[in-house]
């Protein structure tokens, strides 16, 4: 029976990671997978995470099951971090296996509620969005997003395309720090998106995987909060992988905002049911680290400080790269790198140019010319800038 299995398409980003590991060249630079690295190339365990783990080790007296939805401490702390003003009467939530688990459960929930659903997703988007929907046999269409001339958002195209969404379709939006482009909507543009969603009756699902990596912890959640306040139904899939640096702990949350009372309880029940069908109880260790940090003022402040250091390091690298390229190219055509936010920027280069950069300079970017800014440091920025110019980008 198992011999009937067919080969599956590999994940290109993870393949690139393997290819990088196998490269024996000195001075190779990994700008592939979206993991934060400090200037020494290390993905550190954050100070507050270490402290929280120590406290958990000292104080935890049982590892018995929690509940299908995860602990209230984690869910409440995350609701406050993401939404600030939490509409308790409208909010349902479950802890999930990372942000990916939240996306999967959110799409399952949406399909349970509307079997005729189409999902509208940005072009381009995180490849796993597409692969999950293909696997689920969920119809989707892509809305225009990236303007390859300006390397900003093609907002007119986006508006025209999402206006075609039908009532009870899902429109999947990146809450901040768009992956893979780095190009983001302004708050004024979010207002316009909300107007369209309100008119069409399509339901937003916000993927929030980089809160704190763009303009700050609150600023990055501003759009999500605005959507949550403005529309009757919202799905939010949030990840703690990046902003707490707990990638392998698999810590995420699915939140839904509904009408109050009965609708909320129905959503809560369906979400707990979905957890049970997939893995029963969600993982607890990462969630407990997060709730321990967020509920303790000293740990919370230390974590916020370190997250700010991470964010400012990436902003500094963006500025350095943009200015290096301004000098080398004698033009401002790479200034978009300083305007982009989050871990990624899409250069808008051809696959051949990306290959040339890899072959000749041992700098690894994803094939669509996405680069992970955090893979750079002050010394490798000039190497990349020179490689970009030499490849004719
Ligand atoms: N959404 C986007 C856009 C991402 O880039 C990621 C990345 O890692 C995730 C969701 C999910 O992250 P995780 O499942 O590691 O929490
Ligand atoms: O886009 C990225 O690089 C991150 C990490 O299957 C990632 O989101 C990449 C591929 C994958 C899971 C996570």
UniProtKB/TrEMBL annotation:
Repressor is among the record's keywords: no
Cofactor: pyridoxal 5'-phosphate
Coiled-coil ranges from the UniProt annotation: 300-327
Superkingdom of this protein's organism: Bacteria
Pfam families xref list: Aminotran_1_2
UniProt xrefs under SUPFAM superfamilies: PLP-dependent transferases
InterPro entries linked: Aminotransferase_I/II_large (IPR004839), Asp_trans (IPR000796), PyrdxlP-dep_Trfase (IPR015424), PyrdxlP-dep_Trfase_major (IPR015421), PyrdxlP-dep_Trfase_small (IPR015422)
UniProt keywords, alphabetically: Aminotransferase, Coiled coil, Pyridoxal phosphate, Transferase
Residue ranges annotated for the Aminotransferase class I/classII large domain, each copy included: 28-388
The keyword Transferase is assigned to this record: yes
Molecular functions (GO terms): transaminase activity
Family, as annotated: Belongs to the class-I pyridoxal-phosphate-dependent aminotransferase family.
Known partners and oligomeric status: Homodimer.
NCBIfam families named in the record: PRK09257.1
Protein name in UniProt: Aspartate/tyrosine/aromatic aminotransferase
Phylogenetic placement of the source organism: Bacteria, Pseudomonadati, Pseudomonadota, Alphaproteobacteria, Rhodobacterales
């Amino acid at each position: 029976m198992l011999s009937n299995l067919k080969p599956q398409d590999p994940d290109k980003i993870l393949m690139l990671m393997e290819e990088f590991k196998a490269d024996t060249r000195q001075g190779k630079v990994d700008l592939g997978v979206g993991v934060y690295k400090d200037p020494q190339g290390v993905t550190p365990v954050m100070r507050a995470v270490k402290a929280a783990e120590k406290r958990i080790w000292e104080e935890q007296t049982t590892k018995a099951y929690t509940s299908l939805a995860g602990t209230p401490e984690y869910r409440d702390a995350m609701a406050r971090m993401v939404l600030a003003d939490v509409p308790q009467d409208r909010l349902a939530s479950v802890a999930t296996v990372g942000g990916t688990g939240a996306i999967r459960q959110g799409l399952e929930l949406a399909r349970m509620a509307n079997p005729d659903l189409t999902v509208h997703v940005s072009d381009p988007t995180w490849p796993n969005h597409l692969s999950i929907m293909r696997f689920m046999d969920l119809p989707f269409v892509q809305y225009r997003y990236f303007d390859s001339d300006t390397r900003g958002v093609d907002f007119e195209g986006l508006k025209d395309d999402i206006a075609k969404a039908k009532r009870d379709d899902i429109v999947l939006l990146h809450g901040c720090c768009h992956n893979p482009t780095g190009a983001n909507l302004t708050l004024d543009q979010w207002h316009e998106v909300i107007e369209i969603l309100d008119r069409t009756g399509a339901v937003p699902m916000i993927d929030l995987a980089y809160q704190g990596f763009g303009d700050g912890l609150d600023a990055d959640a501003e759009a999500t909060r605005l959507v949550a306040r403005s529309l009757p139904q919202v799905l939010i899939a949030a990840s703690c992988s990046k902003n707490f640096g707990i990638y392998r702990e698999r810590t995420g949350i699915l939140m839904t905002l509904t009408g109050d009372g009965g609708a909320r309880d129905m959503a809560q029940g369906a979400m707990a049911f979905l957890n049970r069908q997939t893995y029963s109880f969600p993982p607890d260790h990462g969630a407990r680290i997060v709730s321990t940090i967020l509920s303790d003022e000293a740990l919370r402040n230390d974590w916020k400080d370190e997250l700010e250091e991470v964010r400012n390091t990436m902003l500094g690298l963006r500025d350095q790269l943009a200015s290096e390229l301004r000098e080398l190219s004698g033009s401002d055509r790479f200034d978009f790198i300083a305007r982009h936010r989050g871990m990624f920027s899409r250069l808008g280069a051809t696959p051949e140019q990306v290959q040339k950069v890899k072959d000749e300079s041992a700098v690894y970017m994803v094939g669509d010319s996405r680069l992970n800014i955090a893979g750079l440091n002050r010394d490798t920025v000039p190497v990349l800038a020179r490689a970009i110019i030499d490849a004719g980008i």
